[in-house]
Amino acid sequence: MDPQTIIAKRIAEELKDGMLVNLGIGIPTQVANFVPAGMRVYFQSENGLIGTGPVPEAGMAAPFLTDAGGRPVTALPGASTFDSAMSFGLIRGGHVDVTVLGGLEVDQCGRLANWMIPGKMIPGMGGAMDLVTGAKRVIVAMQHTAKNRPKIVRECSLPLTSERSIDLLVTELAVIAFPDRRATLVELSPGVSLAQVLAGTQAELVIPDYLQAASCNA
Amino acid sequence: MDPQTIIAKRIAEELKDGMLVNLGIGIPTQVANFVPAGMRVYFQSENGLIGTGPVPEAGMAAPFLTDAGGRPVTALPGASTFDSAMSFGLIRGGHVDVTVLGGLEVDQCGRLANWMIPGKMIPGMGGAMDLVTGAKRVIVAMQHTAKNRPKIVRECSLPLTSERSIDLLVTELAVIAFPDRRATLVELSPGVSLAQVLAGTQAELVIPDYLQAASCNA
Amino acid sequence: MRTIPLQEAVEMIPSGASIMVGGFMGIGTPELIVDELVRQGKGDLTIIANDTASPGVGIGKLVRAGLVRRFIVSHIGLNPETQKMMMDGTIIVDLVPQGTLAERIRAGGCGLGGVLTPTGVGTLAEVGKSKIEVDGKTFLLETALRADFALLHAFISDYVGNLSYALTARNFNPLMAMAATTVIVHADNIVPVGVIAPDHVMTPGPLVDYVVAKG
Amino acid sequence: MRTIPLQEAVEMIPSGASIMVGGFMGIGTPELIVDELVRQGKGDLTIIANDTASPGVGIGKLVRAGLVRRFIVSHIGLNPETQKMMMDGTIIVDLVPQGTLAERIRAGGCGLGGVLTPTGVGTLAEVGKSKIEVDGKTFLLETALRADFALLHAFISDYVGNLSYALTARNFNPLMAMAATTVIVHADNIVPVGVIAPDHVMTPGPLVDYVVAKG
Fold first, then answer.
1. CATH of D2-191+200-213, one of 3.40.1080.10, 3.40.1190.10, 3.90.950.10, 3.40.50.300
2. Do C206 and A50 touch (CB under 8 A)?
3. Mutate which of D112, D139, D145 to test chain C, going by most C C-beta atoms within 10 A?
């Protein structure tokens, strides 16, 4: 499996029946592909839709039904549409159960940076600051390193998206949670050793005993 | 004509084609009866309707289509409905061209009191404070005196509805405007003398020359 | 969302709860849920609503049954029973300008701390509020309102809780659907999923916890 | 509302105007009006919108034609031309969190001075903003936004200007309809008065000044 698939599949396990979920562009979008059949998850597109369905069949798209990236989508039975104030009322007001976003950096107390690289790339925060501030649970989907440079760092060098600590970080190597704002390793991906994770991580990680042991056995 | 009809008819002359108008309960409601045929005025009910029409024919009311007093109304072609946040967004945001409200007192700089009599009657402000604060033009429909006590006073003894000076006060005796926050007599009702108005008014009134003269001739 | 028998729905509400109740002069108020509140005698309530309707109607039933400790409303003028109990001191009534009430509830539902409104500056409504100047204009800081429960009335619900309201029965219902921990709805009609057009849904299903099951 | 030929509508807009433009990545943007703005070469504009779409699409056309002095938007990531001109210093781009942008426009249209939002606290988005505590929680005071013109796209308009939007083409359009001095709409369909159900009107007619007449 490629890293993106590993990440998307693992995040899909966090979703539960009846949840309202917002997926960012990039890896997060792929999470929708791994929701178990029969589980009803409502996907919100922040451009004003709950009930986002898959890409339409050829010749069956509407120019006025798209995801937040402007790509044609469908609407599932039970879908609803609304304006941008309502869309962010849902997001900021804590009505979104889970948001899954991409990341550039996450620091060791769980703060995310994902909206600009000063002097180099300034896409803007779009809905990211509201999503991280307001969603009940924030999950970041991110490759563990970029060109062998750690992205899980002691302190973000890039501008923060929010002061809030994210809830879960899923990479192709590991799953990291942030209880009491401390980066805590909770899972190693199959076949990945603790040493591998530590080598690719700059942040100080809390390692629970069961993973220390797992590592000794590896 | 009874005082209420005089007032309502005179206020109807202030309405122009295309205006969005909010009428309070009491005398203001009667203004709608005197809009000239062919003139399109949009009446807003603050419970969430633009395009309020007359009382329905017997047996043709809907329990969920009422005015702000809970009485059945109809909706004219081109009507629209909305929630209370939108309704007051229209009001506070200056989208209502004219509001017509009843009054308990108006002071000589044009401030209205119309929502409570301490210790005696506390209906609450309802939408009145928003209407007086936000509407483009505020017209008060009020009998000139109550049991021979002036209601147009130097200073309101009752709690104010807004700091804002109203634009026009119409009584059965006179029409008073408030340029530069100074009560200024602009019209006498047919057959009413200046002396009559002055006798029923506690506030200091600016009297333009043409009304002084009219008074001499009376 | 799940459907729930009326009695069970109201059993979830403890005495002493704070409750938002939809409706404007009783129009858009979930009358059946109010009746059951009275039947179960849930008392000491804080009610947030536009008004207290008229005697014996809608929220007026809660007034008459003596179940309310405190009201946060914009208007009680058409219910003399509420006015009398307010002047007696039997109940506390916080009067809030109607547009401000709508915005405070909306803020509570949308994760805002509050809004700045010009309404009420220089009146009794400003007592105890912070005043903030923006571009030389004075505003009152009106803070967000939330409640434990919202009791709403809809014209149509589907089986995932998407709601549509009819004409002037909409009023405060969609705002309150966002501002309470638990949202309970009585709908005149419950329809299969997919038959309300997405553009005609006024409250998206994920906001609704319970819809009272048909008789 | 009155209908107006496209050319005449755009002639009302002076160079240097502030303009809100509906749409999200071009969806719900009045493409025809944008084209005419480019044809008439109205420059030095301040554009308030969600984003700058993609190169050569929707607002992207204004970017490419060099007509914009300043943007107030939430996202420019899908238009490299905007990013390049921002880094060049050719245009000024104020980046605003999307939910904050929506609320600031809504506040402008609803007569509010601003709102308190938790979004952006502790980030670059807080620079220059007042921080206000409510119940121990910190919020940014975000002030109202208004513009000289709003250029909107609707699915249906009637001849008094009642508007209905389709699916995700709604986005910022109804908010902007309230927040500009002059509101100009291009609608895919114009229908007789009375055929849009009152409950399906998303922008009431009195908010709309002009609807562009059919070709």
1. 3.40.1080.10
2. yes
3. D112
